[in-house]
Design brief:
The complex is a heterodimer of chains A (343) and B (1015). By secondary structure, chain A is an alpha/beta fold. Chain A is 40% helix and 17% strand. Chain A has helices at residues 2-26, 33-40, 66-79, 95-100, 115-120, 162-173, 186-194, 205-213, 242-261, 277-282, 289-293, 299-306, 310-318; strands at residues 43-47, 50-51, 55-57, 63-64, 85-89, 106-107, 123-125, 130-139, 153-158, 178-183, 200-204, 221-223, 229-233, 236-238. In chain A, strands 8, 9, 10, 11, 12 and 13 form a six-stranded mixed sheet that branches. Chain A is globular and about 60 Å long. By secondary structure, chain B is an alpha+beta fold. Chain B folds into six domains: 10-54; 84-143 and 274-418, MetI-like fold (Orthogonal Bundle), CATH 1.10.3720; 183-249; 428-469; 552-721, no CATH class; 804-1015, Orthogonal Bundle (MetI-like fold). In chain B, the strands form six sheets. Chain B has a six-stranded mixed sheet, with no helix packed on it. In chain B, strands 16-15-18-12-20 form a five-stranded mixed sheet. Chain B is globular, with a radius of gyration of 34 Å. Mean pLDDT of chain B is 79; it is low at 381-426 and 1010-1015. At the A-B interface, helix 1, strand 2, strand 5, helix 4 and helix 5 of A face helix 1, strand 7, helix 10, helix 19 and helix 25 of B.
């Protein structure tokens, strides 16, 4: 009899726990990404680890670069500590999955904003933090000056990127043939190019310049004038969490706005008693801009003090690599950086 | 489990109530188990689908019909207008191509090496041994990178002129282009003739065999007539069909004129191209798998009783006849089952193609997943990709029992099979053949072909060694290794917490030393080697300082925003410097020594512009050197102008302090070199920088408002070819300085714990061995705790697994993989042998399912699907996810190993346990498992080594273990282009660990730990 009861109990427990477990795992989680980040005390940021200038691991073992600094900026704004970031180095092929699965809170890893990605893949894009475009790098010695001359050559390209599709589109549109040599990391593409596996390396201009600057002899390579595409690079986060989206968007715009206003990490202290309402709202001396986002009111002060404005971030990381800021300067000086109203 | 009364009384017999009927109970238990497993599975799947749907992804196959939009490197015709499904089909064909060709080649190579391993020629035998050890003990992925980058991409550039061979065949780093075969319309008719020819040939073969057998001699001389039959019919067919069925397309180089007027090869058109990616993957898979097949073959050959060979010799069979007719046919029986496993491994390993850009199934799926956003759906095809193997460990165990008892023990795991044997040279030579000359005559020049082999291989070895040495000493840039040792060791583990990694290292070293003292003996040779190595390491920095330091060059260039940032360095009192300041012209020699960071670019730019004749240089440059505390009081100032003379100066530094070099330029173009002799570049590691600060005080943060560069190794790069003294001064010294402190401590700990182990063993061997085992068991949680830290602790702050990297992560992944897989493996093994069909089927399904899938896919699945299955797992770090994947994978392999052990236990043991009244659980835990596990210890060790190497696969999901770190450090701006150095370094690390572990496990086995000795 006892054995019988034993089995009954076991069976019941098994069935019950199955139901509980099933119920538990299907139950959706409370709170949004912002709450998760605040509870955790760190921001999980997906970055590149192989593009000099944008995201790489320096010899102290720390992530470093332009995109990496935007992660620092979000951490400074949300948590008050620019270093409260956990960096997840991601390959191009796995980055979208990382966002979809929530493995990273935000992905800032030279990702192009496209319609398909925005609508189909369950994620949203923040403001463009770098205006880029696809171009071709070739050897100076080869003397190629236009894409038409590249008919029948081998082209190195990164796997699973819009670059790969643009290349196919552009060459097909021009009726050109090519041999695609596809690698899974951008340093691999550069190595393939440097070793002579391919005649041209195509990627976003910024990456090309970054890779070129790291080459053993940068002056041996040049970039063909023509653009193959527009590549607006933007932060990416999971769709369906408007609050978190706003936080990422406004911190990104914030660093641009600071540059428009002339606020830098060095002089931000001088602005704390400014009389200009716009600046007062920006530094949190007036209004409740921070509270509207669910952040401390002085969040932009933390961002600018600890990380700096857009111009500072640019100079620190890209100043040597792409000295000409081109479209990536405030609209006031002829660029495309234009932050919405801070009110 | 039902208890019956000893006597059976029919009158007492009643129908057993349902709830006590064993059949019903087991049925219910099985149903519950099955329901549990299936419902958890369904729940997880449901979760995943829900999560996908909420993210706007519907996993169905429709997307496969969409236009791909990308092109593929090779395979059947494919273009961007084709669909994803077409791309996938191309990928399947590509994979099949590599695998099918690979199987054939690896079998041939494996058999050749296996037989070479048993050659009577000492040199050949040992080359085969080195080949096997080197390849088995380094990860395939590292080998693939090396073959691809170091061999195929290192071939001549197309535009420098491909290697042209008769044919015509063109070989360059774009691949091998050979004349291609083109089939015309008549080809199909001609093929009929060939098929008829093949049928006829098989009849000829059969007839010749029968005739030879009737005549009573070995069936030789069958091949030539058979081949002739095919050839004749093919020729007849060729003439009969009229138009030639096959034509050739010859490769033609397409020339192109460069702006300089030089004419170079642009590409080779026509012909068939063998891409470097295909070749590298094929070669990598072939030579790697061959190392394993060689051991399988050797085991098989050695299992043939020696009497068979002697008998064949006595019959007058030649060496090759003996091999072909006597040895191989008998050995094949034994070779075939493990060979199947190796074939399967080759097929699975082909998924590493992604790393070198070959479009195989895994790589293309990845691209499709990324282009379509359908990451989860694309994982599914892999599960049906490979046939499931059905190994039978017990059967193989028996097969591999060598016929000759003194031939040694059989050792195997699922991926390894080899037989330990007494080396053949142990048979004593006659007294007339002793001495060095006699030894050589016997072992190197026994016959004419032995002599030929010896000479050929000796030449090859010398050639390879010279090339390697030239590269290591003269050309390789080892700074990437020396300056990133911390990253290689522990990855992104915080610098101020690295002490914890050291502590864990010392704990593990101490336990290893203890185990060595208790179970093994340190041989004299090991002691001497270790001691010498340590002493050399310790004196190396001092020794290196005896050699002159190569000069440092820095270049102020006109037309740049900052001509040269202030350079700071440390200088001792009375240290003398020699400065030379030279305006650069077209005739200026390329410097040999260190060149400063940014000026590397400037130098390249300059020499290029200097070649333009119209360029007029108008540079006036000044450099001055001063103490950093008083930058405006120069010790010496040098000024040169373009076209002018060089200036030089000799100065003696007044005090031990930080010094600064500053520069100013005027003019629009031109450059000048400052050559500095007498200053060693500063070491850039954290510990070295701390030392400098201790002696010279903190470095100045700014000089005249600018942040200065440190004149350290990370900022400089060696250009030109080093000679030996440069090598010692520049590479050996700094490297030894980085590692010798840790090496000293580790050695001390090993020696002390070794002696403690020996002493303890002498006092009470049994007790101390038990204590040591207990210490090992305790050490696992303890080391994990030290590494991860405690929440809210001051002394041990948490270091998240995302910060772990390098060798640390590699070892942790392997250890966690095997430890965590242990319970799963044991349960699955027991489950597979269960009498309950539901349990058996589910366990078998798990084991075979996982074993049929490549590890890369399992890791990918764990990384992608786990967070979707359970939202709370999304924040789990990918290191943990990788651990989960590796654990599930290893669990399945371990289950098979344990099952082998279980089957090896005599039935009597079980029957005796039952007779004593033990129930199933007690019997399993106390009787069956202890014996089974002891029997499979060596196999588990083999599995662990395989796992250690397989951890390199997590690089695919972006983890920074040893291989990942290597790929990361070579993308640091200073070290781009140093992939060979980094890969050679990690290959050496993998080899050292893997070899040490496999020799330790061999010793373990020899000590009898693996034998079921208490039976």
């Amino acid at each position: 009899m006892s054995r019988n009861r034993y089995f009954m109990v076991v069976a019941l427990a098994a069935i019950l726990s199955t139901m509980l477990f099933t119920g538990a795992v299907t139950g959706q989680e409370e709170g949004g990404v912002l709450q998760r980040v605040l509870d955790r005390g760190t921001l999980i940021c997906g970055v590149n680890s192989t593009v000099p200038g944008f995201g790489f691991i320096n010899d102290a073992g720390e992530a470093s670069g332009f995109d990496v600094d935007f992660c620092h900026a979000i951490a400074a704004g949300v948590l008050g500590d620019a270093n409260a970031v956990q960096f997840v180095p991601l390959t191009a092929a796995e980055r979208l999955t990382a966002v979809q699965t929530g493995a990273v809170d935000v992905l800032i890893r030279n990702t192009t904003h496209t319609l398909t990605r925005d609508t189909e893949n369950g994620m949203d894009f923040g403001p463009v933090n770098f205006y880029d475009g696809q171009r071709m790098m070739v050897r100076v010695a080869d003397g190629y000056t236009a894409i038409e001359e590249l008919d029948g050559t081998a082209v190195c390209v990164l796997a699973g990127t819009t670059t790969e599709q643009n290349l196919a589109d552009q060459f097909a549109a021009r009726g050109l043939e090519y041999e695609p040599v596809v690698y899974d990391t951008s340093d691999a593409t550069m190595r393939g190019f440097e070793e002579g596996r391919c005649d041209a390396l195509t990627s976003d201009y910024s990456q090309l310049m970054g890779l070129r600057s790291a080459a053993s002899d940068p002056s041996a390579y040049t970039v063909i004038e023509e653009w193959l595409s527009k590549e607006p690079l933007a932060p990416v986060y999971l769709q369906g969490d408007p609050q978190w989206g706003d936080v990422v968007n406004w911190i990104t715009w914030g660093v641009m706005f600071a540059e428009e206003l002339g606020i830098t990490s060095a002089n931000i202290g001088d602005f704390s008693d400014s009389v200009i309402p716009e600046i007062r709202r920006f530094v949190g001396a007036e209004g409740d801009m921070g509270a509207k986002l669910g952040l401390p009111n002085d969040f932009m002060v933390q961002v600018i003090t600890q990380v700096g404005n857009y111009g500072e971030i640019y100079e620190r990381n890209l100043g040597d690599i792409i000295p000409d800021r081109g479209l990536n300067q405030p609209y006031t000086t002829g660029g495309l950086l234009y932050a919405p109203g801070w009110r | 489990m039902s208890q019956r009364s000893p006597t059976f009384d029919a009158s007492l017999h009643q129908p057993v109530p349902l709830w006590r009927d064993v059949r019903v109970l087991t049925l219910v238990a099985q149903i519950i188990f099955a329901v549990l497993v299936v419902s958890v599975g369904i729940a997880l799947l449901n979760n995943m689908l829900t999560a996908l749907r909420s993210a706007g992804i519907t996993p169905n196959a429709d997307f496969l019909q969409r236009t791909a939009g990308f092109e593929l490197l090779e395979g059947p015709a494919f273009s961007r207008e084709d669909t994803f499904a077409d791309a996938f089909r191309v990928a399947v064909v590509n994979t099949l191509r590599v695998v099918s060709v690979g199987l054939v080649l690896t079998t041939i190579l494996g058999v050749v090496i296996g037989i070479a391993r048993l050659s009577s020629n000492w040199l050949v035998r040992h080359i085969a041994l080195v080949y096997i050890e080197a390849l088995q003990n380094t990860p395939l992925l590292v080998q693939l990178y090396f073959i691809y980058l170091g061999v195929f991409l290192a071939l001549p550039n197309l535009r420098d002129g491909p290697i042209e061979l008769p044919g015509p065949v063109y070989l360059s780093n774009r691949g091998l282009v050979t004349p291609g075969v083109v089939f015309t319309e008549t080809a199909s008719i001609w093929f009929l003739y060939v098929i008829v020819g093949l049928v006829a040939a098989s009849f000829v073969w059969y007839a010749r065999t029968r005739a030879a057998e009737r005549a009573g001699h070995p069936p030789t001389g069958r091949l030539a007539p058979a081949v002739a039959t095919v050839a004749v019919l093919a020729a007849v067919g060729w003439l009969a069909v009229g138009a030639p069925p096959i034509t050739f397309s010859l490769p033609v180089p397409d020339m192109r004129e460069l702006p300089t007027g030089e004419v170079v090869v642009r590409r080779v058109e026509g012909g068939d191209t063998l891409t470097p990616e295909f070749s590298a993957l094929l070669l990598g898979l072939v030579i790697y798998t061959a190392a394993f097949i060689a051991e399988v073959v050797r085991a098989g050959v050695q299992a043939v009783p020696y009497g068979q060979i002697e008998a064949a010799r006595a019959q007058g069979f030649s060496y090759f006849q003996t091999l072909q007719l006597i040895v191989l046919p008998q050995a094949l029986r034994i070779i075939i089952p493990p060979l199947g496993n190796q074939y399967l491994n080759l097929a699975k390993n082909s998924s590493l193609a992604i790393a070198i850009g070959f479009p195989d199934v895994f790589s293309v799926s990845n691209t499709i997943a990324n282009q379509s956003g359908q990451s989860v759906t694309m994982l599914l095809p892999h599960h049906g990709e490979l046939p499931h193997d059905e190994p039978d460990d017990l059967r193989r165990d028996q097969l591999h029992q060598p016929a000759d008892a003194d031939q040694g023990a059989v050792r195997m795991s699922d991926r390894y099979v080899y037989v330990e044997t007494a080396p053949p040279e142990a048979r004593k030579p006659p007294a007339t053949e002793v001495g060095a000359l006699g030894w050589m005559r016997k072992n190197l020049f026994g016959t004419w072909y032995d002599a030929l082999l010896t000479l050929v291989f000796a030449f090859l070895i010398v050639y390879a060694a010279v090339g390697l040495l030239n590269w290591v000493v003269g050309a390789a840039n080892w700074d990437v290794v020396v300056n990133n040792l911390r990253l290689f060791g522990s990855g992104r583990y915080p610098a101020d917490q690295v002490g914890r990694v050291t502590a864990v290292t010392l704990i593990v070293t101490a336990l290893s030393g203890l185990a060595w003292g208790l179970w093994g003996r340190m041989s004299r040779v090991t002691q001497i080697l270790w001691g010498t190595g340590l002493v050399m390491l310790l004196i190396a920095p001092a020794f290196a300082s005896l050699f002159p330091i190569p000069p440092i060059y820095a270049a102020p260039t006109a037309g740049t925003s900052s001509p040269l940032a202030p350079l700071i360095f440390v200088g001792g009192e009375n240290q003398s410097l020699h400065l030379t300041f030279t305006p650069v012209t077209r005739e200026t020699e390329t410097p040999k020594g260190f060149i400063g960071g940014a000026s590397r670019t400037a130098w390249g730019e300059y020499t290029r512009t200097a070649l333009e004749p119209e360029q007029a240089d108008d540079l006036t440059a000044t450099v001055w050197i001063a103490e950093a505390s008083a930058p405006d009081r120069p010790l010496v100032t040098l000024t040169v102008t373009s076209g002018g003379e060089a200036e030089s100066a000799e100065i003696t530094l007044p005090a031990a302090s930080w010094y600064v070099i500053q520069s100013a330029v005027e003019g629009a173009s031109g450059a000048a070199w400052l050559k500095i002799e007498g200053v060693p570049p500063m070491r850039s590691s954290t510990s070295a920088q701390a030392e400098y600060e201790q002696v010279y005080g903190p470095p100045p943060a700014t000089i005249d408002g600018e942040r200065p560069h440190r004149l350290d190794i990370a900022w400089l790069r060696f250009v030109g070819t080093r000679n030996l003294s440069d090598f010692v001064a520049v590479v050996v010294g700094p490297f030894a300085a980085e590692v010798n402190r840790l090496a000293l401590v580790v050695s001390l700990v090993v020696v002390v714990s070794y002696w403690v182990g020996m002493a303890a063993g002498r006092i009470n061997e049994k007790l101390s061995r038990r204590l040591a085992v207990a210490a090992w068991l305790v050490s696992f949680p303890v080391t994990m705790l030290i590494l991860r830290g405690l929440d809210g602790s001051e002394a041990l702050p948490v270091v998240g697994t995302d910060r772990w990297g390098g060798l640390l992560l590699t070892l942790v992944l392997a250890v966690v993989g095997i430890v965590a897989a242990f319970p799963i493996g044991v349960l699955a093994a027991l489950g597979r042998r269960s009498r309950l069909p539901a349990v058996r089927i589910i366990c078998t399904f798990y084991i075979e399912f996982v074993r049929g899938v490549p590890l890369v896919t399992v890791i990918w699945a764990a990384n992608v699907m786990v967070p979707l299955m359970e939202p709370r797992l999304a924040s789990v770090d990918s290191v943990i996810r990788a651990m989960v994947g590796m654990t599930l994978f290893t669990g399945a392999y371990l289950a098979e190993v344990v099952r082998g052990g279980l089957q090896a236990i005599p039935r009597g043991q079980e029957e005796a346990a039952r007779a004593l009244g033990m129930n199933a659980v007690v019997m399993t835990v106390l009787i069956v498992l202890p014996q089974a596990l002891r029997a499979v210890i060596p196999a588990i060790a083999g599995l662990f080594i395989a796992l250690f190497k397989d951890t390199s696969l997590v690089v695919i999901i972006g983890l920074l273990e040893l291989l990942g770190i290597a790929r990361t450090v070579i993308s640091q701006p200073e070290y781009v282009g140093t992939q060979r150095e980094a890969f050679v370094f990690i290959a050496v690390i993998y080899f050292v660990f893997s070899y040490a572990m496999s020799s330790a496990s061999r010793r373990l086995e020899a000590s009898g730990a693996g034998a079921a000795r208490k039976l």
